[in-house]
Structure formats: C-alpha cells, structure tokens
Amino acid sequence: MSITRYLLASDLDGTLIPLERSAQHLRDVAELVTAFATSANLVLAYVTGRHLSLAQEGISELGLPSPDWFVCDVGTSVYRKTNRGYEPDEAYREAMRNAFGGLSGRDVRAAIGAIEGLELQEEQKQGEFKVSYYTAGRPEAFEATVQSRLDEAKAKVKLVSSYDPVAKRGLLDLLPAGVAKDFAVRYLHDHTGIDEEHLIYAGDSGNDRAAMLTGYRVIVVGNADAALKRDLAAESMARGIDERLYFATHPYARGVLEGLRHFGLLK
Ligand SMILES: [Mg+2]
User: Which of 1, 92, 213, 235 could form a disulfide with 78 if both were Cys (CB 3.0 to 4.6 A apart)?
Assistant: First the structure.
C-alpha cells in the first residue's frame, strides 16, 4: 500500500521566517515545527532568494527543520539532501546552463566586464547561475548596455531590476531566461512524482506570484501585500484555479499552519 506523500514548497523570508521577530511569531514557528515533525509523509522544500549558506543560517536561527530540497537564488539553484549534506542537483544545473544559453554565471560576468556605475554584489549573493550587481542610481539606466554585451556573448538572460530606496542604489539581477521560483517548483514536481493536488506552495510576495498561479495548492500568508492578494484573487479566477488558493488570515508560520489544515494535511 502506498502512502500519499505531500510536498510543501515554501518561501522563507516573510513566509516561514517572520519579518518581525516578536515572541508570538517565534512561538508560531515552534508550533509549525512540531506539526511538521508529526507528519511523516511530508516532503519539504524551501524556495528562497537566498544563497544556500544564508538560507541554512536562516532556518537554523529559527529552528526550522532541514528540508529535503533547497531551491535557492530565486529558483536558479536546486540542492538535494544527501548523507553528505546538500548537493547541487546535476540535472537542474544542466537545465540552468541551457537556459543561460550554454553559459555559467561566471561566463556572464566576464561578458559584461566593467561598466561605470555597475558593481558586483558580495560573493555570497552570487549564484552559479545568478549574477547580481549594485547600480549607482536606478538600475534601468544600465539595462541597455548590459543587454547589448549579453547579446554579443549569446547569453540568454532575464534582467530583474529593483531599487533600494534606503541604500539609494539599484539592484540588477541576471537570471537564466525563463527561470524563476516557479520553474524550480515545476522541476521538483516532476522529479518527486508527487501529484499536483498534493503539492502546496506557500509565499508572501511578488517573486512567489508565478509559482502561485501554476495550479498547485497555494497558501498566501496573511501578511502578504494587499495589492498582491487582489491580483492573485483576480488572476486565479481568470484561470479557473481560484479554489486552489487559500488566503490565510494569520501571518507567517501561523498562516502556513492554517493553510496546511485547510488543505487537510494537518489536523
Ligand atoms: Mg518572501
């Protein structure tokens, strides 16, 4: 007899990891951890923008369990748990290299070279298939130059620009074309063989959006931005998958727990 397995693929910051470390939020995390420990048929994946070492640091700070899979660097790296620790999934690396047009992050960096006002972020923020820069001022101003150098190298890259108003500098991420968290979650889905209806994705922000509209069961934690919630409600309705999205009333870990109960994973 086979036992139904569930996959919980969850974002970390703002979802399992509370943005404010209040005593209540930390108690909620502890309660969720206990609930995880009692469900033997749960496969766990953390899906994060963080690099592996920072993701591991984050979960150990909060006492979250070691997952079966880590999806790091906004979906550009997948690590599986082995008895030697976490190892990069080779098939996924191959998929990323193909998506980058046959290049690695290192090759992409070399292709871009030096551009005035563009500065590589710290080494721990770089991934094998993710290159991240700081820009002096708004990042959009650099896109055309960066793009033309990428085109010369035949790199297939998606540019993701954002702006940090506090530090007053731009952030420019270069990812393999077509790759984001949803790409990685689909890979886990194919790889684990867990049915779509038993795959639950939990998240809180814009970089979870695509994964939330793929058709899996979804938990939108209560602290998610109101505009994102409205957008997800409308878009899931348009796609006929609105019943698969659960908008939790509670924030962070408590919201995830609420959603897991809603989907019948936990009592
Ligand atoms: Mg988040």
Answer: 92
Residue 81 and residue 68 in contact, taking contact as beta carbons nearer than 8 Å: yes
pLDDT in tens, 114-138: 999 999 999 888 999 999 999 999 9
Kindly report the CATH class assigned to 6-93+179-262: alpha beta
The CATH class that applies to domain 101-176 reads alpha beta
Residue 35 CA to ligand 1 center (angstroms) comes to 21
The answer to whether the CB of 65 falls within 8 A of the CB of 35 is no
Q: Give per-10-residue mean pLDDT for the chain (267 aa).
A: 85 95 96 92 94 95 97 95 96 94 94 96 91 94 96 92 85 92 95 93 93 96 94 98 98 97 89
- Residue 176 alpha carbon to ligand 1 centre in Å: 21
Instruction: Report phi then psi at 186, rounded to 5.
Output: -65, -35
The phi and psi torsions of 127 (rounded to 5 degrees) equal -120, 170
Ligand 1 centroid – CA 265 distance (Å): 22
Q: Are 185 and 201 in contact (CB under 8 A)?
A: yes
- 115 CA to middle of ligand 1, Å? 31
Q: How far apart are CA 156 and CA 193, in angstroms?
A: 29
Domain boundaries, the chain: 6-93+179-262, 101-176
Tokens 């998929």 -> residue: 95
- pLDDT given at position 147: 96
